Amino acid sequence: MKLLYFDDFKLGVLKGDNVVDVTATVQDIPHTGPHDLISGLIERFDAYRSRLEDAAAKSDGVPVADVRIRPPLPKPGNIDCMAVNYMEDGTLDKPAPINAFHKASSTVIGHGDTMVLPDVPATIFEGEAEIALVIGKPANSVREADAMDHIFGYVNFIDGSARGLPPSNNTFFQMKSRETFAPIGPFLVTADEIEDPQNLQIKLWVNGELKQNFNTDDMAHKIPRCIEWISSIHPLAPGDILATGTNHRGLSSFMDGDTVELETEGLGKLSFSVRDDLKRTWSRESRLEHAEKGGEGRHTPQLTGKYADG
Questions:
Q1: What pLDDT shows up at residue 168?
Q2: What is the model's pLDDT at position 169?
Q3: How many CB atoms lie within 10 A of CB 180?
Q4: Contact 131/197 with Cβ under 8 angstroms?
Q5: Is there a domain that residue 310 lies in?
Q6: Rounded to the nearest 10 degrees, how much is the dihedral formed by the CA atoms of 71, 197, 153, 9?
Q7: Total domains in the fold of the chain
Q8: Which of 62, 126, 222, 224 is deepest in the core (most CB within 10 A)?
Q9: Using only C-alpha atoms, what is the Rg of the chain?
Q10: By three-state DSSP, how is residue 228 classified?
């Protein structure tokens, strides 16, 4: 099943190219807003699934192209992101030590929304294409062997980054937790629709140009291990997001006016725009292209605009 919020946060079930409003079916779930309605549904999904299927079967719905799609998880309790979790197309000799970081839940935006680049002296702004899993039941010190049972579903995820902010020893939180820096969607796909999350192609385009193109089989620490490790640090609850990392070789600059599209097999295509009121510019080279040309540093330098000389 594919779940989404649309228009004024009506809950919908995707039915082909249409969306069926099933809000009335879940109104008895205790909630204060769309953020805890979806987490409450996830927690009680076994009891509500047949009701949702019946409601969807009774209506043709409306074309999804005619509605405004909203983030399927407007404000998750936790967003945990795996760090350096790909073998970079097999170019790394060994996996990096397992690691992660916490991203503020207020960073979430949805399909058709805008990532806004802040007025800060970042060396570059990037967005990392990722598949994120959504927790379906409480997970606290879960064993790797049991980890997959705690997944409700999957969603496209972009990890926005403002790289290179000063001071050099205090950058990670301010790099990752900027407002609008976590586009997700367009919908939440239940786990039963994804046969093997460890064998999915992920593609990201910037203005129609393919930049990232990699498979989740290149993950250094596989999904069960990620859940085991994160849940050993803090408990995970229904509706929490765990983003699984990216292959960095295709990363490139995000700039004003860009249209970014992310598609993972089975998860639909997430599209959003980028706005930079400062109109800064960078080369369009990917990290791999920059390295192959013998460029200095991991990514291309800023070309024009505020902070370009600093």
A1: 80
A2: 74
A3: 19
A4: yes
A5: no
A6: 20
A7: 2
A8: 126
A9: 19
A10: helix
Reading the block at residue 70, the tokens are: 């909203």
183 token code pair:
């586009």
pLDDT of residue 167: 87
Total Cβ atoms within 10 A of residue 234 = 13
Token pair of 109, please?
Answer: 């935006």
- 145, burial (CB in 10 Å: exposed 0-12, middle 13-18, buried 19+): exposed
Residue 200 confidence (pLDDT): 98
> What pLDDT score does 107 carry?
98
Q: Which tokens belong to 245?
A: 């990392």
| pLDDT at residue number 300 | 92
Please check whether residues 196 and 55 belong to one and the same domain: no
Question: Do 152 and 257 share a domain, yes or no?
Answer: yes
3-state SS assignment for residue 117: coil
Whether residue 98 is found in the same domain as residue 233: yes
Query: Is residue 51 located within the same domain as residue 86?
Result: no
pLDDT at 138: 98
What are the C-alpha distances in Å from 8 to residues 33, 35, 60, 69, 235? 11, 13, 20, 9, 31
Q: In this structure, are 44 and 93 located in the same domain?
A: no
Residue linked to tokens 């509706």: 239
* Distance in angstroms (rounded) separating the CA atoms of residues 298 and 249: 10
Query: 169 by DSSP, 3-state: which?
Result: coil
- Let me know whether 33 and 96 are in one domain: no
Q: Please count the residues of the chain.
A: 310
Q: Is 309 inside any structural domain?
A: no
Same domain, 44 and 165: no
**Residues 274, 114: contact at Cβ < 8 Å?**
yes
Element (H, E) at 226: helix 223-231
pLDDT under 50: residue ranges of the chain = none
Residue 201: both structure tokens together:
């192609």
